[in-house]
Amino acid sequence: MARCMEALTVERGGFQPELAPHRETFITLLRKAAADAWKSGALYCGCMAESFGGDTPITGSVTVSLAGGRTSKGDPLPTDPAAIADRR
Length: 88
Prior knowledge:
The protein has three helices and two strands, in the order ααββα. By secondary structure, it is an alpha+beta fold. Helix 1 packs antiparallel against helix 2.
């Protein structure tokens, strides 16, 4: 995982040379986000930062976790696509 993050950071940072001095900060941020997501049982974690020419970048993250969802009767939620589509 750590090697993948480093490789992606180097690859994507190569398109914007002004980000190169901040590469280690980005890698540290990504590793922390991944570790936090892993500890909380997340299935997926994604982070982004975008600069639109200003001093402050716009940042965002998404974490997808699986919770033990239940119906009002206490049964597990259906996973069959047809059953989900029929729920009203």
